[in-house]
Amino acid sequence: MAHQTLAQRFSATFVEQIVNGTYRIGDRLPSLRECMRLHGYSKNTVINAYELLTTQGYVEARHGQGFFVKTGTAKSAEPEDPPPYARAMDTIWLMRQQFVREPGHSPLGEGFPPVEWLMDMRLDRFTRQIMRTGVTTLFRYGNRLGNPGLRQHLVQKLAGYTIAATPRQIVTTHGANHALDLIIRRFVAPGDCVLVENPGYYPLFGKLQLQGARMLAVPRLADGPDIDVLRHVLKTQRPKLFFIQSVGHNPTASDISPSKAHQLVQIAEEHQLILVDDDALADYKPTSAIRVSALDQLKRTLYVGSFSKSISAALRVGFIAGNKEVIDELGDLKMLLHTSSSEFCERAVDVILGEGHFLRHLMRLQERARTATAQSLQLLDDIGAEVFARPEQSLYLWARFPSFDDARELTRKLLPKGFMIAPGHIFSPVQSDVNPWTRLNVAYLNNPLLKAALSR
């Protein structure tokens, strides 16, 4: 791999995607200009990569139309299972794209709120207070479970969701993704079965692939996981974990119903199943929204929280709440892997949570989400789109558009018009599946140019 040219590596990525079905026979590959824009490669690199694909017989050039996958290029024999890192590479690539902002493009599929939604926090205001609360400790590693003051504030935050916890039941992390990684490392061995929602949070799928886990998909409905499918799977399989999102599900924006939440807690007790309740969008929802963690009171649930989407992704502060024995183990694992999390960042969040300004910020944030959600739903209704769930407030909506059975085709059509969306197949454990749905960020949906493009 070290001796391959950039064009060879780029063409090898397409070969893998053609073989695994991401691009099917007859599909048109992205244009030269789209590849240059998406990947940052030079025109010569992209041309050389496409010429390699043509020489190898994977694609054919059609004059004036572009490059298309040729008949008979897919492997007929069942390929050997690739190593975990190779299986996770597509997710790694997708995550890289999420962090790239293309000039002149509206990031409709972006997973983060606009910066202006968070700017009123003015992080520079808190620097002096952070330094006043013990400057000498900022030059040392922090507590393995996290900053004590922050964990006390997190106890109060959880109480607002009717989740009772003590500081010893909380371990801080470098955001929600680090929290998920710690849980996977602790509970999942290569070959283990793990339950996930479909569609679901695609970075989670990459982490599980990297660990060598076998994912069992449970369809996500508008009121939560499909309980019938879950019961059917549990008749023959014994998974250790079920990763769910009670509130503000990413990507569908759906919330679990009280009935589903109660059934899920009962099933977890019957089958000795640990529920990992990822609540990274909690601050966009009212505290009264039901969560399985609140029903279970952290007996068989692990609650994952984050401040990346409500304060700042740059601070990288998240946490896990659970029973004391599991939190102790996760704290030891965190210490082994990272020594500690950032004392400075955690103290910053501790100071922010202690101010009344933060509550006012959350009220403004939720009001912005409510307004943007209502406007987005109206736009989608006007153009005849189907919406999966209709929340009062959310950062995302999950929609499908008339005449498009594969959202990847819609993605290719919108890109030259300046709009970048997140097609549904990336949110599936099997990314080669055709999916008509797409995730849309409500902060960017209320755009007359987009409405005109979609209407056409």
From TrEMBL:
Transmembrane segments: none
Keyword terms of this UniProt record: Aminotransferase, DNA-binding, Pyridoxal phosphate, Transcription, Transcription regulation, Transferase
Keyword Transcription (UniProt): yes
Superkingdom of source: Bacteria
Taxonomic path: Bacteria, Pseudomonadati, Pseudomonadota, Gammaproteobacteria, Pseudomonadales
Pfam families, sorted: Aminotran_1_2, GntR
Keyword Transferase on entry: yes
Domain HTH gntR-type: 4-72
Family named by the database record: In the C-terminal section; belongs to the class-I pyridoxal-phosphate-dependent aminotransferase family.
An MF annotation (GO) of this entry: transaminase activity
The protein, known as: DNA-binding transcriptional regulator, MocR family, contains an aminotransferase domain
